[in-house]
Amino acid sequence: xxxxxxxxxxxxxxxxxxxxxxxxxxxxxxxxxxxxxxxxxxxxxxxxxxxxxxxxxxxxxxxxxxxxxxxxxxxxxxxxxxxxxxxxxxxxxxxxxxxxxxxxxxxxxxxxxxxxxxxxxxxxxxx
Length: 127
Prior knowledge:
Layout (H helix, E strand, L loop, with lengths): L1 E7 L5 E7 L9 H10 L1 E4 L3 E7 L5 E6 L7 H18 L5 E7 L7 H16 L2
Parallel strand pairs: 5-6
Antiparallel strand pairs: 1-2, 3-4, 4-6
Helix pairs in contact: 2-3
């Protein structure tokens, strides 16, 4: 699913950026999410925390946004799509299953903040 979201840059110019969901083959299913949360190791960044396990089958992930953090479904979905777009831009190739928890809403544009946070967090373990 592709959603076009207008983001205002620092200079006040509107840019149209496509936010993409990960394909079903790259997302974790609910039983896999529960397994990763129960048995995984954790890492923390400025905006994200994650739990992960190493498992064959390529990089697969899920994104979780709490209702306490983003009250409306629109905002929760926007944050999830931004994180998924950032994950696609990083193109991680390791054999990892990861559940990302968004802990703090980053400044706009969300994607660049997530990319920077993911680079620092993921470089510690699976790059």
